[in-house]
Amino acid sequence: MKKRALFTTTVPVEVIFAAGYTPVDLNNVFVSGAECQRLVEKAECCGFPGSSCAWIKGLYSVVSEMDFDRDNDVFIAVTQGDCSNAKVLEEIVSLDTGIKTFIFNYPVDRSTEAMISEIGRFAAFLGTSVEKSEKKGAELSGLRKKLRRLDELSYLNPGLVTGFENHVWLVSSSDFNGDPELFEKDLERFIRDLEGKMPYFARQGRKKIGYLGVPPIIPVHQFFEERNATIVFNEIQREFSMSDDALSLAERYTQYTYPYSSVFRFTKAIREIKARKLDGIVHYVQSFCHRQLEDIILRKMLASDCPELPVLTIEADKPLSKIDHRLATRIEAFLETI
Ligand code: SF4
Questions:
Q1: Domains defined for the chain, CATH in brackets
Q2: Residue 199: pLDDT band by 50, 70, 90 thresholds?
Q3: Which atom in ligand 1 lies closest to the alpha carbon of residue 291?
Q4: 286 pocket-lining for ligand 1 (C-beta < 6 Å)
Q5: Rounded distance, CA 203 to CA 168, Å?
Q6: CA–CA gap between residue 234 and residue 151 (Å, rounded)
Q7: What is the rounded CA–CA span in Å between residue 297 and residue 294?
Q8: Which residue of 4, 99, 252, 293 pairs with 246 in a disulfide if CB–CB is 3.0 to 4.6 A?
Protein backbone atom coordinates (compact mmCIF):
# COMPACT_ATOMS: atom_id res chain seq x y z
CA MET A 1 0.00 0.00 0.00
CA LYS A 2 1.35 3.43 -0.99
CA LYS A 3 2.00 5.87 1.83
CA ARG A 4 0.65 9.28 0.87
CA ALA A 5 1.68 12.73 2.12
CA LEU A 6 -1.08 15.21 1.32
CA PHE A 7 -0.22 18.90 1.51
CA THR A 8 -1.85 22.32 1.21
CA THR A 9 0.99 24.11 -0.54
CA THR A 10 4.57 23.47 -1.62
CA VAL A 11 6.75 21.86 1.03
CA PRO A 12 10.18 20.24 0.63
CA VAL A 13 9.05 17.35 -1.54
CA GLU A 14 12.53 15.79 -1.35
CA VAL A 15 11.85 14.90 2.30
CA ILE A 16 8.57 13.23 1.32
CA PHE A 17 10.27 11.11 -1.34
CA ALA A 18 13.16 10.26 0.98
CA ALA A 19 10.66 8.94 3.53
CA GLY A 20 9.01 6.71 0.92
CA TYR A 21 5.74 8.66 0.72
CA THR A 22 3.93 9.70 -2.47
CA PRO A 23 3.37 13.46 -2.44
CA VAL A 24 -0.12 14.74 -3.23
CA ASP A 25 -0.59 18.48 -3.71
CA LEU A 26 -4.27 18.92 -2.90
CA ASN A 27 -4.45 22.12 -4.94
CA ASN A 28 -3.61 20.17 -8.09
CA VAL A 29 -6.21 17.52 -7.30
CA PHE A 30 -8.83 20.23 -6.74
CA VAL A 31 -8.18 22.44 -9.74
CA SER A 32 -7.43 19.76 -12.31
CA GLY A 33 -10.64 17.86 -11.60
CA ALA A 34 -13.83 18.42 -13.55
CA GLU A 35 -15.88 19.23 -10.46
CA CYS A 36 -14.31 22.35 -8.96
CA GLN A 37 -17.61 24.17 -8.71
CA ARG A 38 -19.36 21.30 -6.97
CA LEU A 39 -16.48 20.95 -4.50
CA VAL A 40 -16.66 24.62 -3.52
CA GLU A 41 -20.43 24.39 -3.07
CA LYS A 42 -20.05 21.25 -0.99
CA ALA A 43 -17.70 23.03 1.45
CA GLU A 44 -20.21 25.86 1.79
CA CYS A 45 -22.93 23.33 2.61
CA CYS A 46 -20.59 21.93 5.29
CA GLY A 47 -20.25 25.35 6.96
CA PHE A 48 -17.46 27.20 5.13
CA PRO A 49 -18.59 30.83 4.82
CA GLY A 50 -19.19 32.33 1.40
CA SER A 51 -16.54 34.88 2.39
CA SER A 52 -13.72 32.34 2.62
CA CYS A 53 -11.51 31.66 -0.35
CA ALA A 54 -12.46 29.04 -2.94
CA TRP A 55 -9.10 27.28 -2.69
CA ILE A 56 -9.51 26.38 0.97
CA LYS A 57 -13.07 25.22 0.31
CA GLY A 58 -11.90 23.09 -2.59
CA LEU A 59 -9.10 21.55 -0.54
CA TYR A 60 -11.50 20.68 2.24
CA SER A 61 -13.91 18.96 -0.14
CA VAL A 62 -11.15 17.03 -1.92
CA VAL A 63 -9.98 15.65 1.43
CA SER A 64 -13.55 14.92 2.54
CA GLU A 65 -14.01 12.62 -0.48
CA MET A 66 -10.78 10.65 -0.09
CA ASP A 67 -10.38 7.27 1.58
CA PHE A 68 -7.64 7.25 4.19
CA ASP A 69 -5.36 4.70 5.67
CA ARG A 70 -4.57 5.93 9.18
CA ASP A 71 -1.35 3.95 9.31
CA ASN A 72 0.02 5.22 6.05
CA ASP A 73 -1.37 8.65 5.12
CA VAL A 74 -0.31 11.99 6.56
CA PHE A 75 -1.52 15.54 6.09
CA ILE A 76 0.82 18.53 5.97
CA ALA A 77 -0.34 22.13 6.21
CA VAL A 78 1.73 25.28 5.86
CA THR A 79 0.73 28.26 7.96
CA GLN A 80 3.75 30.55 8.35
CA GLY A 81 4.49 31.53 4.76
CA ASP A 82 1.12 30.55 3.36
CA CYS A 83 -2.24 30.76 5.00
CA SER A 84 -3.87 30.76 8.43
CA ASN A 85 -6.88 29.00 6.87
CA ALA A 86 -4.62 25.98 6.46
CA LYS A 87 -4.23 25.73 10.24
CA VAL A 88 -7.97 25.32 10.71
CA LEU A 89 -8.10 22.89 7.80
CA GLU A 90 -5.40 20.82 9.50
CA GLU A 91 -7.54 20.61 12.64
CA ILE A 92 -10.63 19.65 10.67
CA VAL A 93 -8.72 16.93 8.79
CA SER A 94 -7.25 15.60 12.01
CA LEU A 95 -10.70 15.42 13.64
CA ASP A 96 -12.49 13.96 10.60
CA THR A 97 -9.92 11.40 9.47
CA GLY A 98 -7.69 10.63 12.44
CA ILE A 99 -4.57 10.68 10.24
CA LYS A 100 -1.33 12.20 11.51
CA THR A 101 -0.88 15.87 10.69
CA PHE A 102 2.07 18.23 10.61
CA ILE A 103 2.44 22.00 10.32
CA PHE A 104 5.42 23.10 8.23
CA ASN A 105 6.48 26.69 8.84
CA TYR A 106 8.72 28.70 6.54
CA PRO A 107 11.01 30.80 8.76
CA VAL A 108 10.04 34.47 8.70
CA ASP A 109 13.66 35.60 8.62
CA ARG A 110 14.61 33.23 5.74
CA SER A 111 17.66 32.19 7.68
CA THR A 112 19.49 29.07 6.55
CA GLU A 113 19.82 27.86 10.16
CA ALA A 114 16.07 28.10 10.80
CA MET A 115 15.33 26.35 7.51
CA ILE A 116 17.77 23.52 8.28
CA SER A 117 16.03 23.08 11.62
CA GLU A 118 12.52 23.09 10.06
CA ILE A 119 13.55 20.56 7.40
CA GLY A 120 15.03 18.42 10.18
CA ARG A 121 11.76 18.57 12.14
CA PHE A 122 9.84 17.64 8.98
CA ALA A 123 12.21 14.74 8.20
CA ALA A 124 11.86 13.42 11.77
CA PHE A 125 8.05 13.55 11.50
CA LEU A 126 8.10 11.49 8.30
CA GLY A 127 10.71 9.08 9.66
CA THR A 128 13.67 10.01 7.49
CA SER A 129 16.80 12.15 7.75
CA VAL A 130 18.05 15.41 6.27
CA GLU A 131 20.94 13.51 4.63
CA LYS A 132 18.59 11.17 2.77
CA SER A 133 16.46 14.15 1.76
CA GLU A 134 19.52 15.97 0.40
CA LYS A 135 20.33 12.87 -1.65
CA LYS A 136 16.83 12.96 -3.14
CA GLY A 137 17.33 16.66 -3.79
CA ALA A 138 20.46 15.90 -5.82
CA GLU A 139 18.55 13.22 -7.77
CA LEU A 140 15.78 15.70 -8.64
CA SER A 141 18.11 18.47 -9.77
CA GLY A 142 18.26 17.19 -13.38
CA LEU A 143 14.48 17.25 -13.58
CA ARG A 144 14.39 20.77 -12.17
CA LYS A 145 16.88 21.87 -14.84
CA LYS A 146 14.53 20.48 -17.51
CA LEU A 147 11.72 22.59 -16.05
CA ARG A 148 13.99 25.60 -16.41
CA ARG A 149 14.62 24.65 -20.05
CA LEU A 150 10.88 24.43 -20.66
CA ASP A 151 10.44 27.88 -19.13
CA GLU A 152 13.23 29.31 -21.32
CA LEU A 153 11.60 27.86 -24.43
CA SER A 154 8.35 29.52 -23.36
CA TYR A 155 9.63 33.07 -23.21
CA LEU A 156 12.02 32.74 -26.13
CA ASN A 157 9.24 31.39 -28.38
CA PRO A 158 5.90 32.84 -27.25
CA GLY A 159 3.15 30.64 -28.61
CA LEU A 160 5.37 27.64 -29.31
CA VAL A 161 4.71 26.78 -25.69
CA THR A 162 1.32 28.11 -24.69
CA GLY A 163 0.91 29.98 -21.42
CA PHE A 164 -1.31 27.18 -20.17
CA GLU A 165 1.23 24.47 -21.02
CA ASN A 166 3.90 26.39 -19.17
CA HIS A 167 1.52 26.83 -16.23
CA VAL A 168 0.58 23.15 -16.06
CA TRP A 169 4.15 21.84 -16.19
CA LEU A 170 5.39 24.24 -13.57
CA VAL A 171 2.42 24.01 -11.22
CA SER A 172 2.51 20.20 -11.35
CA SER A 173 6.10 20.18 -10.19
CA SER A 174 5.02 20.74 -6.58
CA ASP A 175 4.40 16.98 -6.39
CA PHE A 176 5.57 15.78 -9.86
CA ASN A 177 2.18 14.07 -10.13
CA GLY A 178 3.48 11.64 -7.50
CA ASP A 179 5.99 10.03 -9.89
CA PRO A 180 9.10 12.08 -10.74
CA GLU A 181 10.53 9.46 -13.11
CA LEU A 182 7.43 9.38 -15.27
CA PHE A 183 7.11 13.16 -15.01
CA GLU A 184 10.70 13.58 -16.24
CA LYS A 185 10.20 11.20 -19.17
CA ASP A 186 7.04 13.03 -20.25
CA LEU A 187 8.76 16.39 -19.89
CA GLU A 188 11.76 15.22 -21.92
CA ARG A 189 9.45 14.10 -24.70
CA PHE A 190 7.57 17.42 -24.58
CA ILE A 191 10.80 19.43 -24.80
CA ARG A 192 12.14 17.24 -27.63
CA ASP A 193 8.94 17.86 -29.62
CA LEU A 194 9.23 21.60 -29.04
CA GLU A 195 12.86 21.66 -30.12
CA GLY A 196 11.88 19.76 -33.28
CA LYS A 197 9.23 22.37 -34.08
CA MET A 198 11.42 25.38 -33.31
CA PRO A 199 13.14 25.76 -36.71
CA TYR A 200 9.71 26.05 -38.41
CA PHE A 201 8.10 28.27 -35.79
CA ALA A 202 7.09 31.80 -36.79
CA ARG A 203 6.71 34.19 -33.83
CA GLN A 204 3.49 35.81 -35.11
CA GLY A 205 4.17 38.97 -33.06
CA ARG A 206 2.42 37.67 -29.99
CA LYS A 207 2.27 39.94 -26.94
CA LYS A 208 4.34 38.64 -24.04
CA ILE A 209 2.45 38.73 -20.77
CA GLY A 210 3.61 38.08 -17.22
CA TYR A 211 1.19 36.44 -14.80
CA LEU A 212 1.76 37.22 -11.13
CA GLY A 213 -0.21 35.87 -8.20
CA VAL A 214 -1.54 32.55 -7.01
CA PRO A 215 -2.61 30.11 -9.76
CA PRO A 216 -6.03 31.01 -11.17
CA ILE A 217 -9.30 29.12 -10.85
CA ILE A 218 -10.57 30.64 -14.07
CA PRO A 219 -9.09 30.07 -17.59
CA VAL A 220 -6.94 33.21 -17.76
CA HIS A 221 -4.15 31.61 -19.78
CA GLN A 222 -6.42 30.31 -22.50
CA PHE A 223 -8.20 33.67 -22.76
CA PHE A 224 -4.96 35.53 -23.46
CA GLU A 225 -3.73 32.82 -25.84
CA GLU A 226 -6.83 33.20 -28.01
CA ARG A 227 -6.11 36.94 -28.36
CA ASN A 228 -2.60 36.85 -29.79
CA ALA A 229 -0.99 37.15 -26.37
CA THR A 230 0.89 34.45 -24.49
CA ILE A 231 1.66 34.30 -20.80
CA VAL A 232 5.41 33.66 -20.88
CA PHE A 233 6.06 34.21 -17.19
CA ASN A 234 4.03 32.32 -14.61
CA GLU A 235 5.58 33.77 -11.50
CA ILE A 236 4.40 31.56 -8.62
CA GLN A 237 4.23 28.45 -10.77
CA ARG A 238 7.89 29.02 -11.70
CA GLU A 239 8.65 29.31 -8.00
CA PHE A 240 6.97 25.94 -7.41
CA SER A 241 9.36 24.39 -9.94
CA MET A 242 12.41 25.42 -7.83
CA SER A 243 14.42 25.49 -11.01
CA ASP A 244 17.15 27.87 -9.81
CA ASP A 245 20.42 26.16 -8.90
CA ALA A 246 20.90 25.49 -5.19
CA LEU A 247 23.59 23.78 -3.18
CA SER A 248 21.31 22.42 -0.47
CA LEU A 249 17.64 22.05 0.43
CA ALA A 250 17.93 24.91 2.92
CA GLU A 251 19.24 27.14 0.14
CA ARG A 252 16.55 25.96 -2.29
CA TYR A 253 13.70 26.62 0.12
CA THR A 254 14.98 30.02 1.22
CA GLN A 255 15.43 31.16 -2.41
CA TYR A 256 11.81 30.16 -3.05
CA THR A 257 9.94 33.47 -2.84
CA TYR A 258 6.29 32.57 -2.28
CA PRO A 259 6.34 32.15 1.53
CA TYR A 260 8.41 35.23 2.31
CA SER A 261 7.99 38.99 2.15
CA SER A 262 6.27 40.60 -0.82
CA VAL A 263 9.28 42.85 -1.40
CA PHE A 264 11.59 39.83 -1.65
CA ARG A 265 9.14 38.08 -3.93
CA PHE A 266 8.47 41.01 -6.27
CA THR A 267 12.16 41.99 -6.47
CA LYS A 268 12.84 38.60 -8.04
CA ALA A 269 9.72 38.79 -10.20
CA ILE A 270 10.73 42.20 -11.54
CA ARG A 271 14.15 40.81 -12.47
CA GLU A 272 12.38 38.16 -14.57
CA ILE A 273 9.96 40.70 -16.04
CA LYS A 274 12.88 42.78 -17.28
CA ALA A 275 14.91 39.80 -18.52
CA ARG A 276 11.93 38.46 -20.46
CA LYS A 277 11.13 41.90 -21.94
CA LEU A 278 7.43 41.56 -21.19
CA ASP A 279 4.76 43.74 -22.78
CA GLY A 280 2.32 43.71 -19.86
CA ILE A 281 1.55 42.23 -16.46
CA VAL A 282 -1.60 40.66 -15.17
CA HIS A 283 -1.85 40.32 -11.39
CA TYR A 284 -4.39 37.73 -10.34
CA VAL A 285 -5.85 37.99 -6.86
CA GLN A 286 -8.13 35.48 -5.22
CA SER A 287 -11.22 36.86 -3.53
CA PHE A 288 -11.04 36.76 0.27
CA CYS A 289 -7.30 36.09 0.25
CA HIS A 290 -4.96 38.24 2.36
CA ARG A 291 -2.61 38.28 -0.63
CA GLN A 292 -4.95 40.70 -2.39
CA LEU A 293 -3.26 43.47 -0.41
CA GLU A 294 0.06 42.62 -2.04
CA ASP A 295 -1.28 44.35 -5.14
CA ILE A 296 -0.50 47.66 -3.42
CA ILE A 297 3.16 46.69 -2.96
CA LEU A 298 3.48 45.24 -6.45
CA ARG A 299 2.13 48.39 -8.05
CA LYS A 300 4.46 50.62 -6.04
CA MET A 301 7.47 48.51 -7.00
CA LEU A 302 6.50 48.34 -10.67
CA ALA A 303 5.83 52.07 -10.79
CA SER A 304 9.35 52.65 -9.57
CA ASP A 305 11.17 49.92 -11.57
CA CYS A 306 9.14 49.58 -14.79
CA PRO A 307 7.00 52.73 -14.97
CA GLU A 308 5.98 52.18 -18.59
CA LEU A 309 4.74 48.62 -18.13
CA PRO A 310 0.93 48.21 -18.31
CA VAL A 311 -0.51 46.31 -15.31
CA LEU A 312 -3.95 44.83 -14.94
CA THR A 313 -5.23 43.42 -11.64
CA ILE A 314 -7.94 40.81 -11.94
CA GLU A 315 -9.88 39.06 -9.22
CA ALA A 316 -11.89 35.87 -9.16
CA ASP A 317 -13.92 34.15 -6.49
CA LYS A 318 -15.40 30.84 -7.64
CA PRO A 319 -14.05 28.46 -10.31
CA LEU A 320 -15.50 29.11 -13.78
CA SER A 321 -14.93 27.27 -17.04
CA LYS A 322 -15.23 30.55 -18.97
CA ILE A 323 -14.11 34.13 -18.26
CA ASP A 324 -17.19 36.21 -17.49
CA HIS A 325 -18.30 39.04 -19.73
CA ARG A 326 -17.12 41.91 -17.50
CA LEU A 327 -13.66 40.51 -16.98
CA ALA A 328 -13.37 39.62 -20.67
CA THR A 329 -14.04 43.26 -21.59
CA ARG A 330 -11.41 44.48 -19.09
CA ILE A 331 -8.74 42.10 -20.40
CA GLU A 332 -9.50 42.99 -24.02
CA ALA A 333 -9.28 46.71 -23.24
CA PHE A 334 -5.97 46.07 -21.46
CA LEU A 335 -4.58 44.20 -24.47
CA GLU A 336 -5.50 47.11 -26.71
CA THR A 337 -3.31 49.43 -24.63
CA ILE A 338 -0.21 47.27 -25.22
S1 SF4 B 1 -5.71 31.74 -1.98
FE2 SF4 B 1 -5.06 32.91 -0.17
S3 SF4 B 1 -6.65 32.60 1.37
FE4 SF4 B 1 -6.91 31.03 -0.21
S5 SF4 B 1 -5.78 29.25 0.56
FE6 SF4 B 1 -4.37 30.40 -0.76
S7 SF4 B 1 -3.26 31.80 0.60
FE8 SF4 B 1 -5.08 31.04 1.72
A1: 3-130 (3.40.50.11890), 141-337 (3.40.50.11900)
A2: confident
A3: 2
A4: yes
A5: 22
A6: 9
A7: 5
A8: 252
